[in-house]
């Protein structure tokens, strides 16, 4: 069987799709599995033990210049590669119009997407000839993704699998051995994909001061468009924190993977850190952590979002904002997480601390 898995973006969503790739490989050991992903995120997929080949796309750039000659050439090339691959099945856990277009390009006889209300965008369903419900009993998007294997006759695990990023860290760490500080350090992540998810720089600066008092050097990491915010955290910390250099995705992985602890909002690097087994605290301001929270051996969550009371599944993790947590509240959760990690570094179950309003 030739199977195409379509999860184009974003960083955290790809991490949460790794367990689906593993489930497909375990259920179909002889299948050829291809993952279609956005070009900048290729390192998160290439080399994964469950994946045989990778095809990259550039949908953001293509949408900006849909009629340009380069766009027509590149989209035509991707369509040709997919048709020559001749997949039997295409699975789209992303459930957006852009991922659905790629699903349609595959020409696979079976094009499987999520049913509503698990699917994010209604119109994406036009590309599928089969839809499947997500998990009825578990909210988390990993459970929703895993449930898709039932559409091709495979069974799902009874327990929610944790994303495992050790393969990625092991494959690149030797190339960036000198990147991380020599002394124990903590990583602070001040950015997020949406302004409503961003933590106050002064709050994070106060957290940095508390970390420094525990002999952990705070390092503020940043991605595209986040440098100014990261610099503000460093400035307000009165010298307690250092600004990380500009990092590639591979370098960021090593920086996170060797940290004593990681703290940030609902942002992709938080999910990546959790998958690496690093003690990770996610602070969720406007996201339902029950659906999109970090999963790992040592994770904790502070949620100030006002969560929906209904247990119905949904394709969105949006929630109404509540009172942002203070630096003291964040530090208290970090301190508990650090203490837990020292006593039980191989904890099999995620640790959760929540303050739901």
Q: Give the CA-CA distance, first to last residue.
A: 48 Å
Give the C-alpha Rg: 20 Å
> How many distinct beta strands?
12
Helix content: 25-40%
Mean of pLDDT: 93
For the record, the CATH architecture of the largest domain stands as 3-Layer(aba) Sandwich
Identify the CATH class of the largest domain: Alpha Beta
Instruction: Say what the CATH topology of the largest domain is.
Output: Rossmann fold
- Beta content comes to 15-25%
Structural class: alpha/beta
Write down the secondary-structure element order: EHHEEHHEHEEHHEHEHEHEHEHEH
The total domain count is 2
The major beta sheet can be summarized as:
6 strands, parallel
Structure annotation, total helices: 13
Query: Which strand order do you get reading across the main beta sheet?
Result: 3-2-1-4-5-6
Quick tags:
357 residues; alpha/beta; Rossmann fold; 6-stranded parallel β-sheet; 12 strands
How would you describe this protein?
This protein has 357 residues and is an alpha/beta fold. The protein folds into two domains: 2-152, Rossmann fold; 166-343, Glycogen Phosphorylase B (Rossmann fold, 3-Layer(aba) Sandwich), CATH 3.40.50.2000. Helices cover 34% and strands 15% of the residues. It has 13 helices and twelve strands. It has a six-stranded parallel beta sheet with strand order 3-2-1-4-5-6, with helices on both faces. Strands 9-8-7-10-11-12 form a six-stranded parallel beta sheet, with helices on both faces. Helix 9 (227-236) links the parallel strand 8 (217-220) and strand 9. The chain is globular and about 60 Å long.
């Amino acid at each position: 069987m030739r199977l195409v898995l379509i999860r184009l973006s974003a960083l955290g969503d790809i991490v949460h799709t790794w367990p689906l790739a593993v489930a497909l490989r375990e259920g179909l050991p002889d299948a050829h599995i291809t993952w279609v992903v956005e070009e900048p995120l290729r390192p998160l997929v290439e080399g994964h033990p469950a994946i045989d080949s990778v095809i990259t796309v550039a949908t953001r750039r293509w949408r900006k210049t849909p009629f340009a000659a380069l766009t027509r050439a590149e989209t035509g090339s991707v369509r040709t590669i997919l048709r020559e691959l001749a997949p039997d099945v295409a699975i789209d856990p992303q459930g957006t119009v852009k991922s659905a277009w790629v699903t349609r390009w595959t020409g696979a006889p079976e094009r499987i997407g999520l049913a509503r209300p698990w699917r994010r965008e209604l119109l994406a369903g036009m590309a599928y000839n089969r839809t499947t419900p997500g998990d009825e009993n578990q909210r988390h998007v990993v459970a929703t993704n895993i449930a898709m294997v039932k559409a091709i006759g495979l069974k799902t695990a009874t327990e929610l699998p944790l994303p495992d990023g050790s393969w990625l860290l092991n494959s690149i760490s030797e190339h960036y051995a000198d990147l991380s500080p020599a002394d124990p350090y903590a990583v602070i992540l001040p950015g997020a994909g949406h302004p409503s998810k961003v933590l106050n720089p002064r709050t994070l600066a106060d957290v940095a001061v508390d970390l420094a008092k525990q002999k952990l050097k705070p390092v503020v990491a940043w991605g595209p468009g986040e440098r100014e915010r990261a610099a503000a955290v460093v400035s307000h910390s009165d010298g307690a924190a250092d600004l990380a250099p500009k990092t590639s995705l591979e370098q960021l992985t090593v920086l996170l993977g060797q940290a004593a602890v990681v703290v940030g909002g609902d942002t992709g690097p938080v999910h990546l850190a959790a998958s690496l087994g690093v003690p990770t605290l996610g602070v969720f301001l406007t996201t339902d952590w029950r659906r999109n929270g970090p999963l790992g051996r040592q994770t904790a969550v502070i949620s100030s979002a006002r969560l929906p009371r209904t247990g119905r599944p949904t394709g969105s993790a949006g929630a109404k904002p509540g009172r942002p947590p203070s630096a003291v509240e964040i530090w208290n959760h970090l301190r508990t997480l650090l203490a837990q990690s020292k006593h039980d570094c191989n904890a099999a179950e995620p640790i959760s601390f929540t303050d739901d309003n």
